[in-house]
């Protein structure tokens, strides 16, 4: 009986790394979905925000225009279907270190700033995402300051 149980575990759970280690596509989709969550949070989707999202995805993941367009479409669908943000943030926590997660929050602030102002809903979503990424208030504030500086330089 013990051998049968071991066989069952081996057959059904041997590929646990596939469940715990997301691939590059999954990570890009998770990040893009979180970016889109910020864009749609104020119920007013601006072209500038979409352009900023595309630019951040290009920089972060070194994607072509076609790949970005496909990723954005997938992210919009994932965002619409998502019950919570935790599955997306979990993938990033499992794959990225703290500095990479801080960079994402900076990118989210930059996307929120693309239309010239940070709405209360955008602020709330970014803080919620940052908390799910286990970032501190200081890290969130520093990311916002860095995003403001980058935005002014544009």
Describe the structure.
With 154 residues, the protein is mostly helical. It contains 9 helices and no strands. Helix 3 packs parallel to helix 7. The longest helix is centred in the N-terminal third of the chain and has 18 residues, at 24-41. The model is unreliable at 1-6 and 12-18 (pLDDT under 50).
What is the terminal-to-terminal distance?
A: 67 Å
- Unreliably modeled segments: 1-6, 12-18
Q: What's the helix count?
A: 9
Based on CA atoms alone, the radius of gyration comes out at 18 Å
Q: What's the average pLDDT?
A: 89
How does the helix and strand content classify structurally?
A: mainly alpha
Largest sheet: none
Strand-residue proportion: under 5%
Tally of DSSP β-strands: 0
Oligomer: single chain
N-to-C series of helices and strands: HHHHHHHHH
Overall body shape: globular
Helix content: over 70%
List keywords for this structure.
0% strand, 154 residues, mainly alpha
């Amino acid at each position: 009986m013990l051998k049968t149980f071991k066989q069952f575990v081996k057959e059904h759970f041997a590929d646990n790394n596939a469940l715990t280690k997301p691939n590059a596509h999954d990570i890009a989709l998770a990040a893009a979905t979180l970016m889109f969550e910020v864009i749609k949070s104020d119920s007013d989707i601006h072209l500038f925000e979409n352009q900023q999202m595309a630019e951040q995805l290009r920089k972060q993941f070194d994607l072509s225009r076609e790949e970005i367009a496909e990723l954005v479409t997938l992210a919009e669908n994932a965002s619409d279907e998502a019950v919570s943000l935790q599955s997306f943030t979990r993938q990033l926590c499992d794959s990225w270190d703290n500095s990479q997660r801080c960079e994402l929050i900076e990118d989210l602030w930059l996307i929120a700033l693309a239309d010239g102002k940070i709405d209360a809903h955008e602020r709330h979503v970014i803080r919620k995402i940052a908390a799910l990424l286990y970032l501190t208030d200081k890290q969130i504030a520093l990311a916002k300051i860095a995003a403001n500086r980058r935005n002014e330089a544009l």
